[in-house]
C-alpha cells in the first residue's frame, strides 16, 4: 500500500469539502480539479458525504478523493465502501489506529500534541495530521516538533488560510496543508465554481517551501 505522502505527491494541498448535496459536491470537485489540484477531502459531517465521495470518484477519476472526520471502525468501513482513496481523522486512539490499519487505503491520523504523535510513531507511522493547527501552537509548535520527531512529517489543518499558509508550508517537516479556505463558503452559497477554482489556484501560488 502506498504511504499517504506518496499518494498525494505533487498535490500537497488538500481542500476540505463539506457537501450539502451530492450534486453540489461534484460541482465543487470539478472546480478544484480545474485549478490543477488533484486531491480533495470530503468530511463525513453531512448525510451526503459517502455518496459524494462515490460520485466524485466516478466523475473525476483523476482526482484523489478521501474521507475525513473518521472516528471509528464503522466510519472507516463507510469510507472504504464509498470508494475513498484515503482516510483522514481529526484525532487518534489505539482503537482507531487498529481500525485504520485494517483498511486497504492510506490514512492520516490526527494529532494535537507530542503524546498523540508518539502514539502514531509507536504504531509505525511517520506521517500525521496536526489539528487544529492554528490554535494548537501553530507553525511554532510544528517547528519544535522537528527536534523531537525528526522522522515525522505533518499535514496541518484547522485555521489555515492564505494569510498564514506560508508559515506552515515553508516548514521542512510539513508535507501538505489542508483546509476549507480553498472552498470559500461564500462561493459555495452562490454556486460560484469559478471562485473556488480561483481560491485553489491562489493557494497553489502561496504554498511555498
Ligand atoms: C477540519 O478537519 O475540519 C479542517 O481542519 C477544517 O479546518 P478549517 O475549516 O479551519 O480549514
Automatic annotation (TrEMBL):
Record's protein name: Keto-deoxy-phosphogluconate aldolase
The record describes its quaternary structure and partners as: Homotrimer.
Record family assignment:
Belongs to the KHG/KDPG aldolase family.
Source domain of life: Bacteria
Species whose genome carries this gene: Alteromonas lipolytica
Q: Does the keyword Lyase apply?
A: yes
GO MF annotation terms: lyase activity
Quote the pathway field. Answer: Carbohydrate acid metabolism
Q: Which PROSITE patterns match?
A: ALDOLASE_KDPG_KHG_2 (PS00160)
Q: Which InterPro entries match?
A: Aldlse_KDPG_KHG, Aldolase_TIM, KDPG/KHG_AS_2
Gene3D superfamilies reported for this sequence? Aldolase class I
